[in-house]
Write a structure and sequence with these properties.
mainly alpha; 15 helices; globular
């Protein structure tokens, strides 16, 4: 009988899924993309990923030991943080970069706020943002051309990723010709199947889509966040002034990785159903604004981090009225 009772402060929300099971399911969903990235960029991908994961696990155990907490590295959350951080790194970065990024993610974005369930931003994205601010040249130039294609997805251009090429086409040749090539169906197919360069885990939109649909089917990821994110992004990519067509924008960069695997993080996304729609739509709006008018060609990471910060406000604004509570005067019934 004691196992059926939970004595704690509100909110009293219980889920049937165990944390460890959910973490392993996300790792499994990401595994095909990791295997394919290894094929595209070589065994260095596994080396970087392994360092990132091991560093995250070691820092997790070390911090929990120092803070007198129970060591919970077996729940898979540190492994997932390390894996997601590696997925957000160029395949040519030096070995120490994923170690530093994982350390920042675990120590400063997770454990110092109380550990799993208490962090207010996604730890992996916080680690990536820290690396971008500290070593921008390593995070934006250490690209590797894929074994079955070109870095840009266009024959003859191997010095820029697709989004970087769209951002500054004049740096690589005739701007009008490059933009036509980026919007060509062949380039879109390369983006979909993964014959382009980019970060380790963002190249194959197809494999990320398969893994993301698995998470939606098992209800580990909430469709509201994904639909709100991709829907608002696609709509604005159509109506706002941009040289890339909507399919190019949807399939390039880390959009699929962010929408399915990081924006849907249980801890840093809203609890309410309406709030999840707002969260996803906000991510989509910020992402396309950064892509079109921002200084960086990509905006996924920063959009999710910004919306993470607003999650408590969104939850407060969208919380349901307490049963038996009378509406405020002047409010609609």
């Amino acid at each position: 009988m004691k196992e059926l009772l939970v004595v704690s402060a509100s909110p009293h929300i219980r889920a049937k899924k165990k944390t460890a099971i959910a973490m392993r399911a996300v790792i499994i969903a990401l595994f095909p993309a990791l295997v394919y990235a290894t094929y595209l960029f070589g065994l260095r991908v596994l080396f970087i990923t392994l360092i990132s994961i091991l560093s995250a696990v070691v820092f997790e155990a070390m911090m929990q030991k120092m803070l007198g907490r129970k060591i919970t590295i077996g729940d898979g959350s540190a492994v997932l943080t390390g894996l997601l951080l590696a997925f957000n790194l160029p395949p040519g970065v030096p070995w120490w970069l994923p170690a530093v990024g994982s350390g920042f993610a675990i120590v400063f974005a997770k454990q110092l706020f109380g550990g799993l369930g208490h962090n207010f931003i996604n730890p992996a994205l916080a680690g990536r943002a820290f690396l971008m601010a500290s070593w921008p040249s390593l995070m934006t130039k250490e690209w590797v051309s894929p074994v079955s294609g070109t870095l840009s997805g266009i024959d003859g251009i191997s010095a820029a990723t697709p989004l970087s090429l769209l951002k500054n086409p004049a740096n690589y040749g005739d701007p009008q010709l490059i933009i036509r090539q980026l919007n060509d169906p062949e380039t879109v197919r390369n983006l979909f199947f993964g014959k382009t360069g980019g970060c380790i885990g963002e190249t194959s939109a197809l494999l990320l889509l398969i893994g993301g649909l698995f998470l939606l089917f098992t209800r580990i990821a909430d469709y509201r966040i994904v639909a709100g994110y991709l829907g608002s992004f696609a709509l604005l990519a159509i109506v706002l002034p941009t040289d890339g067509n909507v399919l190019f924008h949807l399939l390039s960069g880390g959009l699929m990785l962010g929408a399915f695997f990081m924006a849907t993080d249980w801890v840093t996304s809203p609890v309410t159903k309406k709030g999840r729609w707002i969260f996803g739509i906000g991510c989509g709006i910020i992402t396309i604004i950064i892509r079109i008018w921002g200084g960086y060609p990509e905006g996924v990471s920063y959009s999710i981090l910004l919306m993470n910060v607003f999650t408590p406000v969104i939850d407060r604004m969208t919380k349901a009225r307490i049963f038996g509570q009378l509406p405020k005067k002047g409010a609609k019934k």
